Amino acid sequence: MAAYKTIIFDLGGVLIDWNPHYVFNDQYFSSLEDREYFFREICTNDWNEEQDAGRSIVDATQELVHRFPDWEKPIRDYYGRWTEMLNGPIDGTVEIFRKLKDSQQFNIYALTNWQANLFDIALVRYDFLHWFDGRVVSGVEKTRKPFPEFYKILLDRYNVNVADALFIDDNLRNVKAAEELGLKTIHFRSPEHLADALKDHGITI
User: Fold this and answer.
1) What is the rounded CA–CA span in Å between residue 193 and residue 176?
2) Which of 66, 104, 122, 127 is 20 to 30 A distant from 14 in Cα terms?
3) d(CA 128, CA 92)
C-alpha cells in the first residue's frame, strides 16, 4: 500500500456541483431534441474546453452567434447565466477534504479545467477553494486536462513525486491521462464512493 504524501483534486463534479442543465433544463428549449442539438452541435464540450484552455468567452460567444444566429439567446445564456450553473459545494466531498486537511498528513492541490475569469467567481463564493496548498487552473496556464503538460505543471511547480501522489477526478478520460504519468487515481462517483476508495488506498478519514 502506497504511503501517500500528496492528494490532487479535480473541482467541477468533485467538490463543486456545476452543470449547464441547471440553466438549460427541460423547460428551456421547445423540445429535448433542440437541447440535444444545442449541446451536440453548438455549445459542445470541446467548445467549452477551448475557453477552459484560455480562449476569451467573449470571442467564443460572438463566433458562435455569427455561425448560428437562430440560436443567439441560448448561446449568450451559456456564459451570461453561467453562475446559475453553479449549484454549490458537493458537501460530502468538502467534508472529506476538510478531514484530510485537518489531518496535516498531506499536501493537497487542485488541478482544474476552468476558464480563468470564471474561476475568480468560484474563489469568491467558496472559501474551501482557499484551503489548497496550491491550485493549477487551465485558463491561467493556457492548457488543460487531459494533456500531459498540464499535469506536469502541477507536478513540477510543487515538486510532487508521482509515486506518493493520488489524483481524484470525475472524468475517466482525465483519470486515464493521470495514470499514464504514473499517478495513482480514484475515478470519483460520489462522496460515499470516494470515502471507500480512499480507505482502499490506505487513507482513513
Assistant:
1) 18
2) 104
3) 13
CA 147 to chain centre: 14
pTM listed for this prediction: 0.95
How far is 205 from 106, CA to CA, in rounded Å? 12
DSSP 39-108: IIIIS-HHHHHHHHTT--HHHHHHHHHHH-GGGHHHHHHHHHTGGGGEEEE-HHHHHHHHHHHHHT--EE
Query: For residues 60 and 50, is the Cβ–Cβ distance under 8 A?
Result: yes
Look up the CATH number of domain 6-17+87-200: 3.40.50.1000
91-142, pLDDT tens digit by residue? Answer: 999 999 999 999 999 999 999 999 999 999 999 999 999 999 999 999 999 9
Task: Return d(Cα 139, Cα 55) in angstroms, integer.
Answer: 8
Task: Please write the tens of the pLDDT for every residue from 44-64.
Answer: 999 999 999 999 999 999 999
How distant, in Å, are the alpha carbons of 23, 28, 146 from that of 64?
18, 19, 25
Q: In the prediction, which pLDDT does 205 show?
A: 86
Question: What residue segments make up the domains of the chain, in order of their start?
Answer: 6-17+87-200, 24-80
* Averaged confidence pLDDT in the chain: 97
Place of cell 482544474: 112
Cell of 179: 495514470
- Amino acid letter, 181: L
